[in-house]
Hints:
The structure holds three protein chains of three kinds.
Chain A: E1 4-13, E2 16-26, E3 31-35, H1 42-50, E4 57-62, E5 65-66, E6 77-80, H2 92-102, H3 107-120, H4 136-148, E7 154-158, H5 166-183, E8 186-191, H6 194-200, E9 203-208, E10 211-216, H7 218-223, H8 228-233, E11 238-247, E12 252-256, E13 266-269, E14 279-284, E15 290-292, E16 302-314, E17 319-324, E18 330-335, E19 346-352, E20 356-360
Parallel strand pairs in A: 3-8, 3-9, 6-7, 7-8
Antiparallel strand pairs in A: 1-2, 1-4, 4-5, 9-10, 11-12, 11-14, 12-13, 14-20, 15-19, 16-17, 16-19, 17-18
Helix pairs in contact in A: 2-3, 2-4, 3-4
Chain B: H1 12-36, H2 53-60, H3 62-96, H4 101-113, H5 116-131, H6 138-162, H7 166-174, H8 179-190, H9 192-208, H10 211-216, H11 224-234, H12 239-261
Helix pairs in contact in B: 1-12, 2-12, 3-4, 3-6, 3-9, 3-11, 4-6, 6-9, 7-8, 9-12
Chain C: H1 6-53, E1 57-59, E2 62-63, H2 70-77, H3 79-111, H4 118-131, H5 133-144, H6 149-156, H7 168-192, H8 196-204, H9 209-220, H10 222-237, H11 241-247, H12 254-263, H13 268-296
Antiparallel strand pairs in C: 1-2
Amino acid sequence: xxxxxxxxxxxxxxxxxxxxxxxxxxxxxxxxxxxxxxxxGKTTTxxxxxxxxxPDQGRIFFGEEDVTFVPAEKKDIGMVFQNYALFPHLTIFxxxxxxxxxxxxxxxxxxxxxxxxxxxxxxxxxxxxxxxxLSGGQQQRVALARSLVTRPKVLLLDEPLANLDAKLRxxxxxxxxxxxxxxxxxxxxxxxxxxxxxxxxxxxxxxFSGSVDQVGNPREIYTKPVTERVADxxxxxxxxxxxxxxxxxxxxxxxxxxxxxxxxxxxxTHEGQLSTGQAVILMIRPEGTSLDKVDAETEKxxxxxxxxxxxxxxxxxxLDYRVETANGHVLRVEEGPGKLVEVGAPALLSFPYKNAWTxxxxxxxxxxxx
Amino acid sequence: MKHNTRRHKTSVxxxxxxxxIYMFILAPQIIIVLVSVNAGQYLTFPPQGFSIKWFVEFxxxxxxxxxxxxxxxxxxxxxxxxxxxxxxxxxSVVRFGGRFRKQLRLFMLSPxxxxxxxxxxxxxxxYYRVIGWGTTSYWGLLFAHVLVSFPYVFLxxxxxxxxxxxxLEEAARTLGANKLRTLVKxxxxxxxxxxxxxxxxxxxxxxxELPMTMLLAGRNLTTLPMQLYDYIRWSFDPTGAAVGIVNIxxxxxxxxxxxxLVGLETLRW
Amino acid sequence: MLGLKKKDRLVxxxxxxxxxxxxxFCRYALILPVAVFIVVFLxxxxxxxxxxxxRPFLSAGRIGHGLTLANYQKALADxxxxxxxxxxxxxxxxxxxxxxxxxxxxxxHLAQRETKHKGILYAIVLSPLLVGAVVRCYGWMLxxxxxxxxxxxLQYIGLGKAKLMYNFFGVLxxxxxxxxxxxxxxxxxxxxxxxxxWRSAARTLGASGKRVFxxxxxxxxxxxxxxxxxxxxxxxxxxxxxxxxxxxxxVMVTPMLIVQTxxxxxxxxxxxxxxxxxxxxxxxxxxxxFRATDKLLKGVDIYEA
Lengths: 370, 269, 305
């Protein structure tokens, strides 16, 4: 069983804490993403798991085996680096065969396996070329082939698509995912591209400043982010500071929004323990709101506030509005192309309870809601 | 000097000045080549005709051939040791130097910071009064040559190593290669250029070394530069020029190899 | 589930420190042979030479015990020695200035991206370095001698002879030729790093090519000028082969004096003292130059040499 278990990982470089108490459980065959902005510690975590760095504290297990202190060359892993790290002085064939040669696989078998894996990545026949003769996309596939030919227990990918142009990146996402599915290799995928993580990963661990804010499947992360940082990093969000007025049930609560100076309160969904009077953040995704005429009827289980439309942008498939509340707070709204409201006109912003989400205030408040 | 208002680089005067300076740089080498095939004893204007007799003289000169052979062998030995020392010092300074990298680099280059003559004097006194070799030891001369040539190997190898992408070594490790295998299969082959161009420079530096060698080489250890030096002071016979051609040829080969491997533009002290 | 016990933490620390120890070992093990080599063949001989310079000189080849400053007194007070030192420094200054004058256009030319055939031009500039001082000086001797090519040409066209060798002029020509490549190499880097967009900006502001050069390119290349000049000065002042071949004994410089003292007079203490006086001169000159330029240059970063 190739499960990965990371417990209380710590890693410091000089005075900078790169990884701060990271714990993660990954099941056999799962593709888990480490997602976060640069410097959040995702690459360092990956390198600790790979055995390229030695953690200061914590444990890493592959299945039942403690591999915390096992160096990379003794682990059964495959790794793809951001710049591919193809050996420039070796042919594609020799690059891919490298891992097999170090494991002393017999020559005939090597040829068989290399040809097989090159066919899988659609690069048959290019075995005698050198890396610099290949395009970026081809190099990336060679790097993937090289890491998979040894049939490793664990596959580690460090922003493997970062150096490709947008369209190629999209194609390669699906390609990489399908190969991983076919082989069933337990995989960790580091990326800063949230769209990529959402598409490929079974589960995502969102990291900031060395620690994991949230682990969950893409849907959970998107609809129920645990912290402001996560909400802000994944997709677009309107984040408004609020205070819990009362708890309606274990999934609904009533919030006071001081900033919006509302006479009424907002009812939002929540999960987990909230207490009355607690400071929280209200999150409303732009596509979860709608704009109507000022005097429109309010439906059941829907919050609404009066706003003024400030800007309107036509983005092709949606209309992007920025609306201003009575005391100047700006919110973003995404509406279908049919819903045209005039700029400068007053309107009613409404969003159902289920589209309003309560999350906790970050310990270190580095994101300000806008 | 005329300047047109757009780009003074293309003015004729500028081109003439540049050309003159390049000619100045090439002058003595060109003269040596001309003299070596000159029919007459002295180089006069107008030239006296073509002849290869000086090369024949050279080929028959026991002294020149012996000293040339000695210089070659000495340079080869010095280069071998220099390459070994240069590689391990470059590797340790670039990889393990840490905070002291700059100082260590200076330390490695220090033999070239002192005048060759004075290092020769220091070594002479040292060999005579401390070690007891005097000027009779081949080892003494060899180590002196290694001392002044290995900094070139260090420089060339450390420059290339500094820009070496560590991800390549890490990739090898993730593929199961231990430290030794990584070194042999990945690091060294990819740093060949630095090693070779450093070795080439080290060889030429040793082959042409004079002030230090003059002080340290006893009677049985005369090198080619020493022999040539004596010769040109006391005779104007162009045989010396024929000998000099070998040096010019070596220099051109060295420059060509360096250009092909690392590109001359990348040389930085 | 996987709690960390105190024993585990200790094991962690031991294993972690093993790696650190291995790294330290590598660092020292690899660098040790080289460090030992340099210490034995450079540091100790120089230290020994310091001591030797302080010993009394008895007669050719014989050195007494005890310490004395007599050698330094002689080296620094004897008018002849001072004159030689003066000649040496003068040679150094004139050579450096000439190398700067001739080297800057070449370096500027090579630093331009548009220059074609850079490989060949670099080869021209660098190959003399690898030919060896003896061969290069030999070439000059053939050109400059009384019966050499130039004089032969002058006679042919009826201008009579000129004394070009065995004098200051000959020595300077040789020295400039030998050390010009060093100046060029030192200058190329700094000139190249002058961002071409600054020049374009100046031109859009109305500056002519000449003005652009003097106001922008030149001032920004001053650090290169300084490091190149220091290098050339240092090398010229230590030069032996050039002066002795092209100057004979009519131009006496300190390195020649040192060799003479050592080989003919077999006076190690005095030779050693003279050597350190020369080294001291170089050090002082270098420090003075850097001090002076620190004051002159404000707002221009000094590249580390």
